[in-house]
Design brief:
single chain, 372 residues, alpha/beta, Rossmann fold, 2 domains, 6-stranded parallel β-sheet, 4-stranded antiparallel β-sheet, 37% helix, 20% strand, globular
C-alpha cells in the first residue's frame, strides 16, 4: 500500500440526511422516519389520496393497531411480523378477511389503474393454499414499497442543506467514501450534479461499481424475476441491476410469452429489526444477490481502510444491529464522529448522545445549524 496515500474517511448517511436535505415533493418537505405517516407532515399531506392508491396498506393501518403507528421503521417491522403470523395460520380475523376480499372490486384512481393487475394476480395466488391474510400482508408490503418509490420520485431541488453539510465537512468530504444507508437517492443525485468531487476509487484494487456504497439498495435499482402463469410460481433466478424501473412499471409486466410475466420491484432492504430481506425470502433474494453482496463487501473494505468514521443523520436503531456489529469489528482505534442538527433542549441532546455511547465506546459529537 502507498504510504503517501491520504487515509480515507468513511461517511455514513442516514434518514436524517434525506429529511433534512431541503428537497420537496408537491411543495412540501420530505417526512422523517418518525412522522412518515403523520397526518400533518407525513405522506398524507404529500401524496394526494394515497389511501386510494395503496388500499391494502390502508386496510392494514386501519384494522391493525400496531401497523397504525406513524413511524416508517415500525410499520415495516409490524407488516413483516403480520406476514409471518399469517403464513403460519396464526391470524384468523374474519372481519379483516372480508374487507380484504372487498379489495377485488376496488375503484382505482385513473392515474393508478396500472396497479390493479398486481392485485388481480395476488388474489389468483390465494388458490395455492396459504392464508388469505398472508396475501393481504404481501400486498400491504408491496404497497409500501411502491409508495416509497412514489414519494421519492420527481423531487424538486434542495434549498441548500447539503451545501451546509459540505461546508462543515470541507476536505473530509472530498476524501470520503460515502455509505448511503437510505434507499432514496436525494444525496446521490446532488453529488451527480456537482455537489462534491467524489471520484470512483479502488478498494484493494477492486473498483467500486458506483461512487456511493448502498448496502440497503436503491429505489433506482431493480430486482426482477419471471413468473409462470400456468404454475403460479417464480421462474428463477432473480436478476438485479443498476437500472431504474419507472414507477408505473413496478409489479407484473406482460412479455411476448403469453404464459409468463416478468415482475419488477426496486432493490431495497427495508429498515426492519430482524432484517428478513437481508437473508432473503420468496420475493427478495437479499444477500444472495451478488449486487447487494458487493455493496456490503465494499463497505467492509472501506471500513478497514478508513482512519475516521463520520455519521450524519443516522440514529442506528435496533434494526441496524447487523451494521453496528460489522463496524465494531473494524473500528478498533479509529475516530468516530457524529454530526447532527443542533438540539433545542439539553435533555434531547443527552438522550441522543447516550444512545450512541451504548453503541461505541468513544464518540465525538458535532452539532450544526441546518436551515431548511
Amino acid at each position: 500500500m502507498n504510504k503517501n496515500k491520504k487515509k480515507e474517511v468513511i461517511l455514513f448517511l442516514g434518514s436524517g440526511a434525506t429529511a433534512g436535505s431541503g428537497m420537496v415533493k408537491n411543495g412540501k418537505s420530505l417526512p422523517t422516519d418518525q412522522n412518515f405517516f403523520a397526518e400533518q407532515n407525513g405522506v398524507y399531506g404529500i401524496i394526494k389520496d394515497w389511501q386510494k392508491k395503496y388500499p391494502a396498506l390502508k386496510l392494514c393501518r386501519d384494522e391493525i393497531p400496531e401497523i397504525k403507528l406513524p413511524s416508517l421503521y415500525q410499520t415495516w417491522n409490524h407488516l413483516f411480523i403480520f406476514r409471518g403470523l399469517a403464513r403460519a395460520n396464526l391470524c384468523d380475523d374474519k372481519n379483516l378477511i372480508q374487507k380484504f376480499e372487498e379489495l377485488k372490486n376496488h375503484t382505482w384512481p385513473d392515474d393508478y389503474k396500472w396497479r390493479a393487475e398486481h392485485y388481480e394476480h395476488q388474489f389468483e395466488a390465494i388458490r395455492l393454499g396459504w392464508s388469505k391474510l398472508y396475501y393481504l400482508a404481501e400486498l400491504a408490503i408491496w404497497d409500501l414499497r411502491v409508495l416509497i418509490k412514489d414519494l421519492y420520485s420527481d423531487l424538486k431541488n434542495s434549498n441548500g442543506a447539503f451545501k451546509t453539510l459540505k461546508e462543515k465537512l470541507n476536505e473530509d468530504l472530498n476524501r470520503s467514501i460515502v455509505v448511503n444507508l437510505n434507499y432514496d437517492t436525494t444525496f446521490d443525485d446532488y453529488i451527480e450534479n456537482g455537489f462534491s468531487p467524489l471520484q470512483e476509487r479502488e478498494l484493494f484494487c477492486e473498483k467500486l461499481d458506483k461512487k456511493i456504497i448502498r448496502p440497503h439498495g436503491s429505489l433506482k435499482w431493480t430486482s426482477k424475476c419471471g413468473f409462470s402463469l400456468t404454475k403460479k410460481d417464480w421462474i428463477p433466478p432473480w436478476d438485479e441491476t443498476f437500472e431504474d424501473t419507472h414507477l408505473r412499471d413496478q409489479g407484473y409486466q406482460r412479455t411476448s410469452n403469453t404464459e409468463e410475466l416478468i415482475f419488477h420491484q426496486s432493490l431495497i432492504v427495508p429498515s426492519t429489526y430482524f432484517k428478513e430481506e437481508i437473508i432473503g425470502n420468496s420475493t427478495m433474494p437479499g444477500l444472495a444477490s451478488q449486487l447487494l453482496w458487493n455493496q456490503w463487501r465494499h463497505m467492509e473494505m472501506a471500513l478497514e481502510q478508513a482512519e475516521e468514521i463520520i455519521f450524519y443523520g443516522t440514529s442506528l436503531a435496533s434494526g441496524d444491529d447487523h451494521l453496528c456489529f460489522l463496524i465494531r469489528n473494524n473500528v478498533k482505534s479509529k475516530k468516530i464522529r457524529v454530526i447532527d442538527r443542533k438540539k433545542d433542549e439539553n435533555e434531547k441532546k443527552d438522550c441522543f448522545e447516550k444512545k450512541w455511547k451504548k453503541r461505541f465506546k468513544t464518540v465525538e459529537f458535532d452539532y450544526i445549524d441546518l436551515k431548511y
